Amino acid sequence: MTTATADPAAAPSDEHTPITVTLKILRFNPEVDSEPHWESYDVPAQRTDRLLNLLFYVKDYIDGTFSFRRSCAHGVCGSDAMQINGINRLACKVLMKDLLEKGGKKTVITIAPIKGLTTLKDLYVDMDPFFEAYRAIKPYLITYGNEPTRERIQSQADRDRFDDTTKCILCACCTSSCPVYWNDGSYFGPAAIVNAHRFIFDSRDEGSEERLDILNDGEGVWRCRTTFNCTDACPRGIQVTKAIQEVKRALLFKRV
């Protein structure tokens, strides 16, 4: 099913010149499809559009059965993670000007659900296993004894120790880019380890040993093969592989 509103070969002269791009989307409806299949849609766009705008166009004007997750469109909720031209990205952060072919050539953008999680419908995947792993590492501050009479003070240096891993938005881009996770969904995955890191190295937390014991399991941190896929996929720029290595070192040397 296609619709065309402009000449796809026309080279845009500026950011306000309308263009047409083709979205090649992997569709799957369990009620009618035995397996996923590709469908293409010609969609009007401008260079300043985000890919999410084009997905809305498909749903609003071409096929209302098309399903995908999205929320605020500010690049911080992680809802619209998907494979865009084979790379895990957030649709709300990808600008059309960065995807357009040069020289006025027709632009075809392939879009598929993230890997390693069961596809429920179109780009909509089952996130339950992902969040089960996240909850398993106890992603909250653990303290013992009496509560202090004032806030728990932390130096800037102590905060800097884990600041990078506080940026995680649980989009699953890193976890679903991991070959180990693709082959064996029982692996905790990079996102769970990143969120464990955030508390393991927090000077206010007293549950580091508990989390390290959890990640020392056969499906824990040692399954990482250091391919750097996770770091490359993170839309927030978190040094995911570095965080995983720091957790490994904490286990090896018994200190954080």
Automatic annotation (TrEMBL):
Keywords in alphabetical order: 2Fe-2S, 3Fe-4S, 4Fe-4S, Iron, Iron-sulfur, Metal-binding, Oxidoreductase, Tricarboxylic acid cycle
Lineage, opening ranks: Bacteria, Bacillati, Actinomycetota, Actinomycetes, Pseudonocardiales
GO molecular function terms listed in the Swiss-Prot or TrEMBL record: succinate dehydrogenase (quinone) activity
Protein name stated in the entry: succinate dehydrogenase
Keyword ATP-binding: no
InterPro entries for this protein: 2Fe-2S_ferredoxin-like_sf, 4Fe4S_Fe-S-bd, 4Fe4S_Fe_S_CS, Beta-grasp_dom_sf, Helical_ferredxn, SDH/FRD_Iron-Sulfur, Succ_DH/fum_Rdtase_Fe-S, Succ_DH/fum_Rdtase_N
Cofactor: [4Fe-4S] cluster; [3Fe-4S] cluster; [2Fe-2S] cluster
Record PROSITE patterns: 4FE4S_FER_1, 4FE4S_FER_2
Enzyme Commission number(s) from the entry: 1.3.5.1
Residue ranges annotated for the 4Fe-4S ferredoxin-type domain, each copy included: 158-180
Similarity annotation: Belongs to the succinate dehydrogenase/fumarate reductase iron-sulfur protein family.
